[in-house]
Amino acid sequence: MSQENAALGCQWFEQVWNQQRLEAIDELADPACQAHGHAPDDEVIGLARFKEFARSVIEAFPDVNIQVEETISEGDRCVLRWVGRMTHRGEFMGIPATGKHLVVRGISILRFAGGKIVEAWDNWDQLGLLTKLGALPQVDVIPRAKAS
Q: Which domains does the chain have, with CATH numbers?
């Protein structure tokens, strides 16, 4: 069953993000699905709010492409490590289009029941995205080597 879950998780990224088939959200996720990691204060959201989030991402980054680089599955859960590449062509989170090409990495944990996604936890580099878009100042966490 865990390989089937991994395949369904990969299908989610391909259908929802790469093909931008928002109707795939209803096809692949249970109507009572809960999503973590998309709202302030770690608020848990349902499919309606997730669809709003997905629509805003696709409108702002119409060439979004997410590639799953690794999956780990066990029991009713699958972990997917992914990288997203996109160009900022529309307003996102109040930030006007910059035309910048971005690379964002993330990890998603999906829980399945009855062949559908019933819960998801997403952790992706939102800080890096906002910094690259110019909404936050660039801060070097690891100091750069000084030229000698």
A: 2-132 (3.10.450.50)
3-state secondary structure of 28: helix
Query: Which residues, 6+ apart, have CB-to-CB distance to 121 below 8 Å?
Result: 36, 37, 108, 109
Question: Which of helix, strand or coil describes residue 24?
Answer: helix
Helical segments of 29-94, H only: 47-60
Contact present, 81 and 6 (Cβ < 8 Å): no
Considering only CA atoms, give the Rg of the chain: 16
Cβ of 5: how many Cβ atoms within 10 Å?
A: 21
Q: In what order do the strands lie in the sheet with 77-87?
A: 29-36, 116-124, 101-113, 77-87, 65-74
Asked if residues 30 and 116 have their Cβ atoms less than 8 Å apart, the reply is yes
Over residues 99-115, the pLDDT tens digits come to: 999 999 999 999 999 99
Give me the residues of the chain with pLDDT under 70, please.
1, 148
- In terms of Cβ atoms closer than 10 Å to its own Cβ (0-12, 13-18, 19+), residue 34 is middle
